[in-house]
Structure formats: C-alpha cells, structure tokens
Amino acid sequence: MSLHENKQKEPLLSVQHVKKYFSVTGQWGRLGGVKGQVKAVNDVSFRLVEGETYGLVGESGSGKSTTGRAILRLTEPTDGEVFYQNENIFQVPKRKLQRFRKDVQMVFQDPFSSLNPRKRIGKTIEEPLHIHRVGNQKERRERVLDILDKVGMGPEHYYRFPHEFSGGQRQRLGLARALVMEPKVVICDEPVSALDVSIQSQVVNLLKQLQTEMDLAYLFITHDISVVRHISDRIGVMYLGEIVEEAPTDDLFSSPLHPYTQALFSAVPRTKNERNRERIVLKGEIPSPLNPPTGCKFHTRCPFAMDICKREVPKRKKIEPDHFVTCHLYE
C-alpha cells in the first residue's frame, strides 16, 4: 500500500493514549498494601488502516504484547481509547464485545499453549463459529476445511490433535482459528519468534498472501527487526511502554532518528552494501518499569544524552509528514 493511499483511508482501528498499569503489592499480597506501579504501557497512540500492516517493535519487556492484549481487552486497560468503526471499545460493556471480537482476532506467540490439547483441531477451529452462531453443522465444517486449505493444511488434519503437529504447522492452525471468523484486523503477537528461520519465512509469506486475499489489516508485534522490515508498511518503535519513533518502513530504515532505533537497526546482520555501517552497543540493561528513570527513559543508555534528558520528558515531534520521534535531540 502506498503512503498516499494510506493517507486517504479512514483508520480502521484508532489507538489513542492507551495506558496499562499493574499494581505491585507487598509480601502478603493486597494485605501488605500497594508498593508501586509498573507502567507496562504508557500513553501509546497509533492508527491502523484497512489492508495495512503496522509493526510494533522493541526489546522484550517494552510493552508490545501488553499493548495488543489491552486493545482486545484481554487485559483491562487503565486509561485511553480504542476506536473501531467510530465506537470506543473501552466503553463497551464486556457482554457486548462479541461483534468486536468477531472482527478483531489474535494470533498468539506460542501456538501449542493456545490450542486445547484435548480437542481435535477441527473442533477447535470450529468453536468460534459455534459461539457466534454462524451457519449449521455442515456449513461450519465446510468453512473450517476451506480455511485449513488457505493456510496450507489438508482435510486429513481436521481430526488430529495439537501434539501431532510441528511448531510451524501449529502456528498455521492458530492462524486458521483466527481467520475462520473472517476478521478485518488480526493482532499477531510474536507469531514467528518460536519457529525455525526457514519456517519463519514460510509463515510470514503466508501472512502476506492471506492479507491480499482477505483484505486484512495486521498489527504485527515482534522484536525481530528483519521480519518487521519485510512485512510492515509502517513501524512504531517501543521502549519501556512508550512509542519513541514512528514512520513508514522505508523512511525508518533509511533514516532512523531516535538513538534507540539506531541501536536496534545497527544490530541487524549487515548486507554487502552495509559493511561500513557502525554497530551501536548500548550500555547497561533496560531499566525496571517499576522504577523508570526520570526525564527521558532512555537517557541512562543513550550515547547522546544531555542534561535536559535527565530532567524533562521529551515531546513527540513531527520531523517529516509521517515521521515522528520523541527525543530532545530534535528540538
């Protein structure tokens, strides 16, 4: 999808200032009192349009998966808004979320733990159709067989159990279960991180093929820079619960602005044309979200940190029409 086409479309999913805080209690649980808060997701905003892939990338613990779960209300958000078809999903009572859950599905990181080991695959994939009362028994079975075919599986797999499949096959089945409801948005939470490299490319290519065939929009959550570059139209870079840079994929890779983004991209294996690219090694470990640094959260590891970085929280700035960065270097 071109950048011009992206601008012309209304957002299918609009995420605005979403926050998710977890209370930390004492040794005796709630009786010991609340000791602090972990700000797992802190004021995250982005938009997703029809047919687009938005990549959310960052280190483990940056809040990517929690963001995906908060959007679906698998974990209740602390604050913010998520608009789907002009309706604020965070204000919809849980009992009325059924239509939203039909249109917005999730593919989980570990396909084995997300599949019921006691159920045959056909019945597992068919279960959402029962819940949403779609078709009769024959129509549901035909729909399951059709979606199995689309993800590269055969009718002989309908009666097998999850333990009879390889990791790559189980991830295809997890994708089939998400797509059987014909959703408009799929949140992919690290869908290839547990797979071998050769299988990763197969699953990513399958995702792109299905996106074209079914006109899907993806929120693709990953820590793998090379994968997110291959599949995404736009990318948001997360650090300690916040998006520190956002841009179209080509712009972000050709001109990363935030020091954290530059460090992430420098760790990607180099091609023949990139031998002179400098490797940026960050000092220290990612700070604890229970006790984050003051000012800019990245200043403790940033090679360009200034005094103002320790004191003041940087504001989001537009550098180019669709390129945003949150950093004092660009004031």
UniProtKB/TrEMBL annotation:
Q: Which residues form a coiled coil?
A: none
| Keyword field | ATP-binding, Nucleotide-binding, Transport
Q: Which domain of life is it from?
A: Bacteria
Say if the entry is tagged with keyword Transmembrane: no
Q: Where is the ABC transporter domain?
A: 13-265
SUPFAM superfamilies cross-referenced by the UniProt entry: P-loop containing nucleoside triphosphate hydrolases
Return one GO MF term.
ATP binding
* Pfam hit, one: oligo_HPY
Q: Which PANTHER family match?
A: TRANSPORT ATP-BINDING PROTEIN (PTHR43776)
| Assigned protein family | Belongs to the ABC transporter superfamily.
- Identify this protein by name: ABC transporter ATP-binding protein
